[in-house]
Amino acid sequence: MTSDPIRLGFSAESANGQPQTISESLDLLEARDVDTVEVPLLWMELVLNGRVMPDRLAALQAALKDRRFQWTAHAAIGLNFTCDPAYLPLHMALARAHLHIAGAIGAEHMVLHTGFFATGSSSAQMARLYDQQRESLMTLAAEARETGVILCVENIFSEKGNRITASPSQLAAELRLMDDPNLVACLDVSHAALQCDAMGLDFEAEVAALIPLAKHVHLHDSFGRSGTIPVHTRFEAMGFGTGDLHLPLGWGNLPFDRLLSLGQFPAATIFNVELNKHLWHGLDDTVAEGRRLARMARVAR
Predict the structure, then answer these.
(1) Residue 186: which H helix or E strand, with range?
(2) Which run of H or of E encompasses 143?
(3) Distance of CA 203 to the CA centre of its chain
(4) What are phi and psi of 80, to 5 degrees?
(5) pLDDT at residue 1, as a whole number
């Protein structure tokens, strides 16, 4: 366990969705002495029609028992609080189920993505749905407070023309507007690069806007190039250097050192590495590089 101001975490893997299969990746991470582990609720068979499956939760709790890690959790990527209002109850039910699980495993943070809109959505439509998202997130933040979990809202990306979503600076403005201590940012550096490439935004300025709110940071490498070239396999995507590749740190060209100089992170921030499962052969170098980045980052006092 580190005594550094910023802890280093790593996202675990579940082999086939069954909670007990997370143990293999936990063994690998325990041998690398990471501080926190992000439990991938989105990849696990834990919730059915908005309800937690008690036997699956018990299996997950058993798999995590007696491990020395501190825990975080990642909720479903499909959650979208700027959805059609007719579907909002389904999104809230799944979010609440994942929040219940996060509380039951003692997760400090639960990551969930910011909303997205269909292309062609009008400004008036998006304004109404941003109101809906704020109300939803603030409701969940109040419930998270009761379970001891902090919600970390992650920036995502548009690619080019496939959806509309907030830039990192827009997400920062939304979080400041809600002004809830249980509602902070998850800065995903690669997602920020892809959004800036798609939208023609200033990468450094966008990252700098979110850093002061980012108690959680997702680290993985890419080339910041929107995935507009059709590919058939993840290896083709790697070959083209396009899209959200989740590469080992140092394999892409994201300027992590320079970005970390742009501001101060909140106290108790976690840097969590998200490495694609087929690239875990790069685990050792990525943990070492993640630890280096965590040590060089500045933290507000």
Answers:
(1) strand 183-188
(2) helix 123-147
(3) 18
(4) -150, 105
(5) 55
